[in-house]
Q: What sequence folds into this?
DNA sequence: AAACCAATAT
DNA sequence: GATATTGGTT
């Protein structure tokens, strides 16, 4: 008996030690690095959840399309550790998902729903849901969702570690366990997407782009010696990688020949690098002849043709909001103090600008330097860069340097920094851009940062913030111009905006060609009044076109219905290469590349209603 | 030459 | 981030 007791005591001790070490081990692994797949039809819900879960170091994948989610799970068995699935998911609802997943994969599945009817909870539980949570899912619930992974492990095999991705050894053990439990892994469920394999032709995208982490270690790309890491500096942002779908127009490929390597710009010797300074733009010199002109203000009339400042009336003045800060208008009497410019003395002598009361000096701030508008008459004196002979001196410039033996003149590259290869916003990419704007909540809420994040969610990789900023700027300009129909709107943008894009811009329930972000008029106006209001000075000329409310656009409903209820239009789980590879399609085939595009572009060409 | 437009500067 | 300017293409 005594022996038995001692023996038992020893067992308990060992067991306790083991438990303690196991718990310690598990503690170090959860919740961080746990790969969660959340499937819900509502993209906003997904984004919110992802945002919250990211704070707990979960790796979160989201998907709005049930079938794609299931295909992803099947094809990437080891990528996901736990699934959260919407009970009322269209296509494959929570129960079907449970059946599929639990029968083929050893994954804990949490069902979430906006109701908690006993029957639903019961069914979910019956089909093997490890939890049933009600939307909106509380943060604590998400924070602790990892417990289901641990629980599942402990129930099935107490000594198995969780399949946390970052630990290959553990993954191996998991595979072993799966084999032990005879988990069927060979049968694809549906639409199995083949895993992409990197070949010499198909290379992973670089540096900080999505898959870099994954493959750096496997394939050893990181030690590639390049200009950046050669010099022990923090490497600059990696250049974007164009996929087959998203290709830049390599318009300046000339430089490839000239300098050997497309992107090896840093070695180009130029004036800037010679003196080891940042490039400085030549300073302006104001003369009596050369006066700054304010964009869009008094003198705009004069120069609008030349400089494209077509509107004196601008959004500000039209809607009286930020325009309350009436901008200072410079004229012959009222001249700006160009304090940092060479000849400012000349003018400051004659006019006491400091007494000009304006918004700026009322509040004790320095008056803003007016932006200048160049006309043909008024040209800046660009210090040493003035081309007087009309020759193209863009690339060569004569500079004089003071050497030890006196002055020598050398002709050299002026050192224009080569520009990034231009990207082209293809129609499909632009559509995604528009889609992203919609998701964000409209053009008025869109900004480059949030847009680029949203595009990344939509598996558009490699687009930079400035890419988006630039496009957004143009987009907004086009939206504005869309209010002012021009005879000359024959270009792609105008066409797109006259037909397709505008329909996507309005807020949810407003049928109008006027983008919502331009709608600064009183909310109480009716449709006609709004249009008149918005178009202000234009109504006389364009009365028929603009002030008539457009007919109801049936596709709006269609579109939004799709948006909110049906399957989404884009696959958020695959990148473009994978998409292409999976579908075996050509990148140029818009319809096929995005087979579930929620609208037919032709649909937007409404008969009898011409936005132009 | 002018329109266009993404990149870049402010 | 918004907007103006630049530099390149069409």
A:
């Amino acid at each position: 008996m005594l022996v038995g007791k001692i023996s038992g005591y020893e067992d308990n001790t060992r067991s306790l030690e083991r438990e303690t070490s196991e718990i310690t081990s598990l503690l170090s692994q959860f919740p961080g690095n746990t790969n969660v797949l959340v499937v819900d039809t509502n993209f906003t819900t997904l984004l919110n959840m992802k945002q919250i879960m990211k704070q707990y170091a979960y790796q979160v994948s989201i998907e709005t399309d049930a079938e794609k989610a299931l295909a992803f799970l099947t094809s990437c068995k080891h990528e996901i550790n736990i699934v959260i699935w919407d009970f009322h998911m269209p296509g494959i609802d929570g129960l079907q998902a449970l059946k599929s997943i639990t029968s083929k994969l050893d994954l804990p599945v949490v069902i979430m729903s906006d109701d908690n009817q006993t029957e639903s909870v019961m069914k979910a539980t019956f089909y093997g849901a490890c939890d049933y949570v009600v939307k909106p899912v509380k943060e604590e619930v998400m924070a602790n969702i990892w417990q289901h992974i641990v629980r599942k492990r402990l129930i099935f095999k107490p000594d198995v570690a969780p399949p946390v991705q970052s630990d290959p050894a553990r993954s191996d053990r998991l595979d072993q366990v799966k084999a032990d439990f005879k988990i069927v892994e060979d049968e694809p469920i549906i639409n199995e997407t083949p895993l992409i394999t990197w070949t010499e032709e198909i290379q992973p995208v670089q540096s900080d782009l999505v898959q870099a982490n994954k493959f750096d270690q496997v394939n050893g790309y990181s030690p590639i010696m390049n200009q950046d890491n050669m010099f022990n500096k923090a490497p600059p942002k990696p250049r974007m990688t164009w996929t087959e779908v998203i290709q830049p127009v390599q318009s300046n490929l000339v430089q490839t020949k000239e300098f050997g390597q497309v992107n090896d710009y840093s070695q180009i010797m130029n004036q800037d690098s010679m003196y080891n300074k940042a490039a400085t733009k030549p300073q302006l010199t104001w003369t009596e002849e050369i006066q700054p002109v304010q964009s869009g203000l008094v003198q705009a009339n004069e120069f609008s043709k030349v400089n494209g400042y077509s509107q004196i009336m601008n959004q500000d003045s039209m809607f009286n909001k930020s325009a309350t800060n009436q901008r200072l208008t410079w004229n012959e009497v009222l001249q700006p103090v160009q304090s940092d410019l060479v000849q400012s003395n000349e003018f400051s002598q004659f006019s006491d600008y400091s007494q000009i009361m304006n918004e700026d000096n009322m509040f004790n701030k320095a008056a803003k330097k007016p932006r200048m508008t160049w006309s043909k008459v008024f040209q800046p004196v660009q210090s040493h860069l003035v081309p007087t002979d009309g020759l193209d001196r863009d690339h060569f410039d004569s500079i004089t340097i003071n050497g030890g033996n006196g002055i020598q003149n050398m002709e050299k590259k002026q050192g224009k920094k080569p520009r990034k290869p231009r990207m082209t916003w293809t129609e499909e990419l632009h559509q995604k851009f528009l889609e992203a704007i919609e998701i964000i909540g409209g053009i008025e809420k869109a900004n480059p940062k949030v847009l680029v994040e949203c595009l990344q969610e939509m598996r558009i990789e490699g687009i930079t913030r400035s890419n988006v900023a630039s496009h957004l700027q143009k987009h907004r300009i086009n939206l504005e111009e869309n209010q002012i129909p021009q005879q000359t709107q024959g270009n792609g943008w105008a066409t797109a905006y006259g037909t397709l894009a505008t329909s996507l811009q309005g807020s949810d329930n407003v049928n109008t060609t006027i983008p919502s972000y331009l709608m600064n008029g009183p909310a109480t106006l009716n449709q006609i009044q709004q249009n008149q209001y918005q178009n202000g000075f234009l109504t006389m000329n364009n009365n028929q076109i603009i002030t008539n409310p457009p007919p109801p656009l049936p596709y709006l409903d269609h579109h939004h219905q799709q948006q909110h209820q049906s399957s989404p239009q884009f696959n958020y789980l695959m990148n473009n290469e994978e998409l292409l590879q999976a579908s075996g399609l050509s990148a140029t085939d818009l319809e096929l590349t995005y087979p579930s595009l929620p609208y037919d572009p032709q649909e937007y060409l409404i008969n009898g209603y011409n936005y132009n």
Remarks:
- Residues 300-381 of chain A form one domain.
- The longest strand of chain A covers residues 396-403.
